[in-house]
Design brief:
The structure is a homodimer of 133-residue chains. Chain A is mainly beta and 133 residues long. Helices cover 14% and strands 52% of the residues of chain A. The first copy, chain A, contains two helices and eight strands, in the order E-H-E-E-E-E-E-E-H-E. The radius of gyration of chain A is 15 Å and the shape is globular. Chain A starts with a strand and ends with a strand.
Chain lengths: 133, 133
């Protein structure tokens, strides 16, 4: 078994291959992790959430977004970790129209409206692949 | 699609059904998420890590441990979130012998020694199931 650091390009390509990631935010001094559907707009991660939900209250905060694909049978896989800041999408947001269109294409698993759009602007991206050799 | 809050018993039983979870810690003001193998000792979550790794430097800190099982095809699944405090296992640790034995049974995916054992003592457990009806 080996661990191999992934390049930025590899990280981006792997993130584009998935549709569910995990958004971690800090609430009351504790990290909390939420599975979310997402879209990518340039290097931004876009998620939708219910305006009443815990996640919707987060803004201008340091977060991380993590995506992985792990195979229990072969014990191989990869994990990509993006650290960044999260903002609520509003009318003044940089790339706002493009982000709003992408958000419409995210199909949330839960049937609620999820009108709140959160945008994660990456500060750093790292990734590791765990291989069989 | 519905969201259903899980009871504590349901959360425990679901966590016992998996072997990979995600440990989120706060480093430099940002949450970071690491996939980990784990064991359960009473209500404690036990993970092994490399003493040189980033995770091994975390101690006496607020963390969360999250486990999920999400099916992209049917868009159903569940997620359990445990908030708690993490300690390094040492000779004085409560339930230390029992935890050390459990840690030996965790088979890490990566071949490094992973001699450092971290113990997460839960403060709160919550879970949600996303169903098709």
């Amino acid at each position: 078994m080996t661990v191999h650091e992934l390049s930025g390009d590899e990280c981006r390509s792997l993130i584009e291959s998935q549709e569910v990631g995990r958004l971690a935010v800090i609430i009351g001094g504790y990290p909390e992790v939420f599975p979310v559907n997402y879209a990518i707009v340039r290097d931004r991660i876009v998620v939708r959430t219910d305006p009443g939900a815990k996640l919707a209250r987060a803004q201008f905060e340091r977060v991380c977004f993590q995506v992985d694909d792990l195979d229990r049978a072969t014990r191989t896989g990869w994990s990509v970790l993006i650290k960044g800041v999260v903002h609520r999408l509003d009318d003044t947001h940089h790339l706002g129209d493009e982000i709003a269109r992408a958000a419409q294409r995210i199909a949330p698993w839960v049937g609620s409206e999820r009108r709140q759009v959160l945008v994660i602007t990456p500060v750093s991206t790292t990734g590791r692949r765990i291989g069989a050799e």
